[in-house]
């Protein structure tokens, strides 16, 4: 083949669906337009919100003239971030008890953490099958399959009842090949907003351990779902206490949502080593750390500094940490308020169907139950943008648009009900 034409047969892929929505929204000049697509927090005026804790941390960083710089970070990341992130995720008590078994590296947000996990698994456990929830975050499958890993799904969402397919989930764990990897949404499941109860989590984790599988937790919304770091980390901490006795657990952590570090790309990847002898752990821990460092070094050389310094500063300063706790409550409570407002507006409009699932779900998203055809009409006729699956970012709702969105949903639901009767 001539070098002149060597690129001519490369297939053009379709644009990313989510960012395609953002592009169409940006080009829409209708004054009533509403963006419920991208998962990013907005305040009650529809504007991006820089957390007060973040503003204060930035001021503190810039004010320290003696240490302010743009130097390289260590390959494994900023220590104040990696150490603080582990305490946020696992809790100070578990970290104090098992610090020698926790290996942490900084990552490029949660997506980067998942990529490191996929690279690590593909190098050392390439034969293991990766199980993803059905449905799951759109990028999960691409991240793991890009590293040559085989993926499958476990049942999760019952569209008819808008509930968890719990027994089928358990059956998949029981019948999966021994040693499979189950990717679990730690809280605020994306896209459904539906989480297992604490009792269900206990049974799921026990079953994963019973069949000698590996748990990989994707923690993208800790503190953002309920406003409580400990409540949102329940599954991860239970997994550490139960599964990490005989198996490693992997955790991918993002600070995009709960600190508003969307574009700064701040995250961490953690491996909790199995509970072996001190002598064995002393050999295994540096070996695992070195392999993770090699992955980081070969791909990004070392992680980005600015966002890491912001989060690290917040986590190392008690005053800023407490402000951050208040900020998470501000965000999570506003989103919950909008869930109630949307549900109540739909009930008041007597929109066909039951809409209680909107308030029963948690976190940034709601799996509304709207069909792709309904979503398309919402966009074309009402300038309300959401993902084709019916996933809506509740963070995009506010006092100024929630009634309009409810009326738009009411119209499209009634429209398609009428169409189905013709």
Automatic annotation (TrEMBL):
Spell out the PROSITE patterns in the cross-references: AA_TRANSFER_CLASS_1
Source taxon at top rank: Eukaryota
Residues of the Aminotransferase class I/classII large domain: 32-409
Pfam families named in the record: Aminotran_1_2 (PF00155)
Q: Which GO terms describe its cellular component?
A: cytosol
What is the reaction catalyzed? L-aspartate + 2-oxoglutarate = oxaloacetate + L-glutamate
Note the InterPro entries from the entry: Aminotransferase_I/II_large (IPR004839), Asp_trans (IPR000796), NHTrfase_class1_PyrdxlP-BS (IPR004838), PyrdxlP-dep_Trfase (IPR015424), PyrdxlP-dep_Trfase_major (IPR015421), PyrdxlP-dep_Trfase_small (IPR015422)
Keywords, comma-separated and alphabetical: Aminotransferase, Pyridoxal phosphate, Transferase
Extract the GO molecular function terms from the UniProt entry: L-aspartate:2-oxoglutarate aminotransferase activity; pyridoxal phosphate binding
**EC numbers for this chain:** 2.6.1.1
Residue ranges annotated as coiled coil are: none
- What more does the entry say? In eukaryotes there are cytoplasmic, mitochondrial and chloroplastic isozymes.
**Assembly behavior:** Homodimer.
Q: Which family does it belong to?
A: Belongs to the class-I pyridoxal-phosphate-dependent aminotransferase family.
This protein is called: Aspartate aminotransferase
């Amino acid at each position: 083949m001539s070098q002149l034409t060597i690129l001519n047969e490369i297939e053009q892929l379709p644009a990313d669906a989510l960012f395609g929505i953002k592009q169409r929204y940006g080009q829409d000049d209708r004054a009533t337009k509403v963006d419920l697509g991208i998962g990013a927090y907005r305040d009650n005026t529809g504007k991006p919100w820089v957390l007060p804790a973040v503003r204060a941390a930035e001021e503190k960083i810039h004010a320290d003239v003696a240490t302010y710089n743009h130097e390289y970070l260590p390959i494994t990341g900023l220590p104040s971030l990696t150490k603080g992130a582990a305490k946020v995720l696992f809790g100070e008590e578990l970290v104090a008890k098992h610090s020698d078994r926790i290996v942490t590296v900084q990552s490029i947000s949660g997506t980067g953490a998942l990529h490191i996990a996929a690279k690590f698994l593909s190098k050392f456990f390439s034969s293991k099958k990766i199980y993803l929830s059905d449905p799951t975050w759109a990028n999960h499958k691409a991240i793991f399959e890009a590293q040559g890993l085989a993926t499958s799904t476990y049942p999760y969402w019952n569209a008819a009842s808008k509930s968890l397919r719990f027994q089928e989930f358990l059956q998949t764990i029981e019948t999966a090949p021994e040693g499979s990897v189950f990717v679990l949404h730690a809280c605020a499941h994306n896209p459904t907003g539906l989480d297992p109860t604490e009792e269900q989590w206990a049974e799921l984790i026990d079953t994963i351990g019973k069949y000698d599988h590996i748990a990989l937790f994707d923690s993208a919304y800790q503190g953002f779902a309920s406003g409580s770091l400990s409540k949102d980390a329940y599954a991860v901490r239970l997994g550490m206490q139960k599964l990490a006795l005989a198996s490693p657990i992997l955790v991918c952590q993002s600070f995009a949502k709960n600190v508003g570090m969307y574009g700064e790309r701040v995250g961490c990847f953690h491996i909790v080593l199995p509970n072996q002898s001190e002598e064995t752990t002393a050999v295994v821990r540096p070996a695992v750390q070195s392999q993770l460092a090699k992955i980081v070094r070969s791909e990004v050389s070392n992680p980005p500094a600015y966002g890491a310094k912001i989060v690290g500063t917040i986590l190392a300063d008690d005053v800023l940490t407490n402000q951050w706790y208040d900020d998470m409550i501000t965000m999570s409570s506003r989103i919950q308020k909008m869930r109630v407002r949307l549900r109540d507006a739909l009930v008041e409009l007597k929109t066909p169907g039951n809409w209680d699932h909107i308030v029963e779900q948690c976190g940034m998203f709601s799996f509304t139950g709207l069909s792709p055809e309904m979503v398309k009409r919402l966009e074309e006729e009402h300038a309300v943008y959401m993902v084709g699956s019916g996933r809506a970012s509740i963070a995009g709702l506010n006092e100024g648009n929630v009634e309009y969105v409810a009326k738009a949903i009411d119209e499209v639901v009634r429209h398609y009900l009428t169409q189905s009767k013709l």
